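Technical annex B. To support the medicinal chemistry partners, we prepared a structural model of the target in complex with zinc ion, based solely on the information shown next.
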Amino acid sequence: MKFWKGIFWGAFVISAGVLFAADSLYVPFGKPGYLTSSFGENRGTRYHAGVDYSTDMQEGFPSIAPEDGKIVQVKVSPYAYGKVIYFEDKLGRTWVFAHQSGFSKHLDSLVRATQKKTKKNDVSIENPRIPAFRKGDTLSYTGSSGIGNPHLHLELRSGAHILNPCHYGTLCGDSLDPLILGAAVFQGEDVSISGEEDLKSGCLEVPDIRNREDPLRFAFKIADYSREPLENPMSVRRVTLKSKSRPIGEIIKDTLNFASMLKIREELLWAEEADTAGDWHYIPNPYKLTIGDTLTFETEDMTRRVSKRNFTLQEKCDGPKPLMYGKFQNPEMFSFLSRTWIGLHLCKDDSLKTEFSFFGKGKPIFDSEDNVLNPCEYFLAKPTPLGKILSQFPDLDEIRLTQKGKTDTIRVAEIPADAKEFSWETELNGKKISQNVTALEDVPWTRALAVRKLANDSVPAYEFHPKGLHFLGSWLVSFDTQIANAPLYYLGETSRRWFYFSKQNKTKRTRFTSMNELRDIGFIQDNTAPELGSPYLDSAVIAGKTAPVLRIPVIEKESGIENGNAIQASAKGKPYIYAEYDSEPKELVFILSDLPEAGRKFQIRLQDEAGNAKNFEIVVPGGSSAK
Ligand SMILES: [Zn+2]
């Protein structure tokens, strides 16, 4: 600890000196680490409940007791928090240390004994009988178990509340101010976007500056980085918008609670843009347009660094705009700012030659002059929110788009303005897809759902929009078994891989699942058991010390491994051998000293989530030359 303190003292004082006397700060893993994720960050269906520190891609730093206290729970799993401890301090608060590589001596022995006794790799022990800890003691060791690269996830809980450790005497390294990357102004059914340069030059674009009836609402796109290079975009503590004369709206995230984790759908708007970082923070308070008024937007990061912009409302800003859809979204229909958009700009794209036509109950939609509606002309060949289209053509239930001679169908439905719940049954190619969404929140624009068959993927699948719809309940989707003739999988947003729904049901007529986030859904028949690659010797940090291990790659394309207990390893005379499943990269890790000697065999049985299992016989490699 002393060693690191000497070297990093400079950074230590700069990043934290404003708030606390540097030498009184708690340093969670003995060296001043930089944040890679902040408190309250968007994690799809919930907030990030703690802070993540970079451990410079290394493992095995001691996780230090912040106060006198005791460990009240320890868990081992290949997913989520991986190896994790829950430490209760003398004030009754719980500190969570996740993704550990191992535990301090007494705890390590207890975990290993429990695994051996229960013949399970995944264990959870409450109130382990081990001695209490003093402030500064080593509780466990940092690692990369569960999800992610080596890093420390630190969380602070007090009763039902989750606190920001950076505000409770913990050193949080962050040497950069937050970036304000874009803004969206909502007015009626319209949205206008301003980019980073627009905001820097003091310009904020309004959809219709002459419209004084519809109040404006705002969203700002922000990313906070802790250091160069800008690798891990984080969320911020506070956003504030005020006009010259009065405050407009403010959101502060100092504490969270588990019950309101879903509020994220209200505060952060869903947007998948072309690899650009940052979250869209929605400020729901209405603002009445006043010409000549100066607005000030301010945002503050977790270590209280503030960025600020002043701007006036303009009819048009000339700077480049953030993209509306990313490389993983189809431009014909996409989710942006938690709304469904139709890519009517594609009519102008000569290479795609896209034509859109609108139908209601199978009949073409007409314009006010009784001509068949030309959507591109009518909406000026711009990407248009589906809600805006429906507010003008309420009979619309089907959009047909023709590209290169091929016609595709998008089914759409408007959610009634005051509905708290919405059920929708639609037919695509004669097969039924039903949806039911509960606990819908009010928003001041028309809400609309859309579904389309996903054409350009190897898996038969459907695309649902909008992602990030404002609901706090559940979303049930059921498919006619004729189309969903295999188990349901969802498409990962960033990884673009298919993941098995662990909770799904099948009746004679339908196959269905309930979720708390809209996703694209596909159907995969997985009859293949997982395979193993070639075993190789390596080393890993085990309980703070480097030890030889045997690693075996797992080859499993579809369902994945459900948990650590899906692996059973044994050898003659050893009915149970501890095996760890590392989900990134997918491999099994054995502590070499647990295995029979080199040249001898041991057995592995591996089962995937779909229930396919296979037995393997592995010869322990190496010999005298083994590490
Ligand atoms: Zn984390």
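Notes passed to the chemistry partners:
The domain at 179-314 is CATH 2.60.40 (Immunoglobulin-like).
The chain has four domains: 2-167, 179-314, 333-523, 531-619.
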